[in-house]
Amino acid sequence: MNEKTNSARGRPKTLDRDRVLQTALIQYWSKGPANVSISDICNLIGASKPGVYREFGSDDGLKKAVLEVYHGLAIQPVIDILEKNQPTTDAIDALIGFMTQDRTALGIPQGCLFVMMRAQSERLGPSTYHKLNKVHHDLLAAYSEWIERAKLHGEFINIPTDIAALLLDMQHGGAMRMQREGVPRETIESVLRFALRAVMFRDNVIRS
Amino acid sequence: MNEKTNSARGRPKTLDRDRVLQTALIQYWSKGPANVSISDICNLIGASKPGVYREFGSDDGLKKAVLEVYHGLAIQPVIDILEKNQPTTDAIDALIGFMTQDRTALGIPQGCLFVMMRAQSERLGPSTYHKLNKVHHDLLAAYSEWIERAKLHGEFINIPTDIAALLLDMQHGGAMRMQREGVPRETIESVLRFALRAVMFRDNVIRS
DNA sequence: TCATTATCGTACCTAAGAGTATTTTATCAT
DNA sequence: ATGATAAAATACTCTTAGGTACGATAATGA
User: Are B25 and B63 in contact (CB under 8 A)?
Assistant: First the structure.
């Protein structure tokens, strides 16, 4: 019942959990999760390996915790755009805008940690893998709900919801990969404008 | 000038180069190039490590050679479809057909080694990386030429060629990733039908 | 027959990375 | 003070993976 959050028994902890998370996040994000070791992170912040293991349990535990941070930073904003009640074209503009932010200006790495992790899921531990699938599932669900709501207004009428959700997910992944490969911002934006048009046309019927 | 290809001096070679390549190809393709070691491949075919290194020089050399084999197997067929002179819709059907073959029925791994390598290019050696970029460049060039030809027939009129090429490349990558993640064949086909429609519409103008 | 040549394959080297045993040290409670 | 508690950090272990040193071996050619 005291002010301090720590229970204050034993040697006080000096390891800065948030600093570990932030450092790991930036490293994983910019170099790829498979190309950064726990030792790398420790060296970067001057922490000891047992300290990190005490805090996160394992490599898997750290990656899972980082994925949770990343979710709040770059996945939830997408979901928020989808859940906000706004005209479909505005939502699409917002999605494209979010995906094609000028990352260098913002000091944020190129690409998407979530997308990278999916591309290397074989190299992830079980708890990170599980979390990853949950995030993916939630994202697809958010797309689906957004599409269903738009359909009530007569949009996306000729495309099945699950197909449209996968299509949006695919464009998101593709855009993030292009960004990582160094394709210019404006080019990606242009590709996305055309790509997302695919779900919007009224005469969008599958040919027999 | 003799019939035999080998110069026949010294102890005859027993290492089967093609078998190494085939085994490495299947392993890289099914498990991801970063998840298969040279030792794994040696154990699978009963070869010795020095033998493999004598033949390919290094891990990088083997991966590069495998990528060349893969190119002939799964990239060149795409380029062939694009270079064949046929109606645009037929070409698109052929592309979708090739991408959504029933892999299990054909005994071929899911996904695309080229796409996987691109997603993990940080972990590749310089010569594989170089080859990878060359393949990518050639593929984009083939898309571009195909699009330019179609434009002569009044198609793709409102989309810049380079944007359309990147868009097609993006859909290819997305489809291969979905396949690897276990999305059903028919679902991927449906997503692709809608996605590739994006480049085809006549009223496909970027809104201002 | 015997030197020459080139491959074979065992047994090694080295680096890196995940994870831990152990001793020290800083704080709290009595 | 002093014992209990829990975190600190050094210095390990273990495993994997790329790569190689080197003696053995199987052929050719004189």
Answer: no
